[in-house]
Each structure stands twice: as structure tokens, then as C-alpha cells.
């Protein structure tokens, strides 16, 4: 876990960050947030998921 005021939504096996959103559409700021978390935590794999849709893709 990051010790600088950031909150990772889900960390899997210290190898994958999952960032969960429920927004009309994902924006660049959401991707930038995930990339920042990945860089600060030195984790190479991240998944950005939006739950405000009828079907997950």
C-alpha cells in the first residue's frame, strides 16, 4: 500500500492494481490516476474498471 495519501482500490498479490470507477465514461484523469499508482507502487500491471455500464467489456 502506498504511504503518501493515495488509496489503491484493490491490490492483488502485490502484482496487480485494480482501480474501480462508477462514472458515465472513463476519462484521461482516471487513466492518469491508475498510472500514478502503478508508478509509485512500482507495479507494472493495472486494470481500470468502470461499473457504470450495462455490460462489462
- Low-confidence parts: none
Please give the order of strands in the largest beta sheet: 1-2-3
* Sequence of secondary-structure elements: EEHE
Number of strands: 3
**What general outline do the C-alpha atoms trace?**
globular
Residue-averaged pLDDT: 90
Radius of gyration: 11 Å
Helical segment tally? 1
Given helix and strand content, the structural type is alpha+beta
For the largest beta-sheet, the strand count, sense and barrel status come to: 3 strands, mixed
- Beta strand %: 25-35%
Per-chain topology:
Layout: E1 10-12, E2 16-21, H1 28-41, E3 45-50
Parallel strand pairs: 2-3
Antiparallel strand pairs: 1-2
Report what the structure shows.
The chain has one helix spanning 28-41; strands at residues 10-12, 16-21, 45-50. The chain has 57 residues and is an alpha+beta fold. The chain has one domain. It has a 3-stranded mixed β-sheet, covered by helices on one side. The mean pLDDT is 90.
Give short descriptive properties of this protein.
single chain, 57 residues, alpha+beta, 3-stranded mixed beta sheet, 3 strands, 26% strand, globular
Give the gist of this structure.
It contains 1 helix and 3 strands. The protein is α+β, with helices and mostly antiparallel strands and 57 residues long. The protein has one domain (10-50).
Amino acid at each position: 500500500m502506498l504511504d503518501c495519501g493515495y488509496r489503491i482500490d484493490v491490490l492483488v498479490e502485490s502484482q496487480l492494481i485494480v482501480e474501480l470507477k462508477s462514472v458515465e465514461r472513463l476519462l484521461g484523469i482516471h487513466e492518469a490516476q491508475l498510472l500514478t499508482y502503478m508508478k509509485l507502487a512500482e507495479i507494472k500491471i493495472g486494470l481500470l474498471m468502470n461499473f457504470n455500464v450495462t455490460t462489462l467489456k
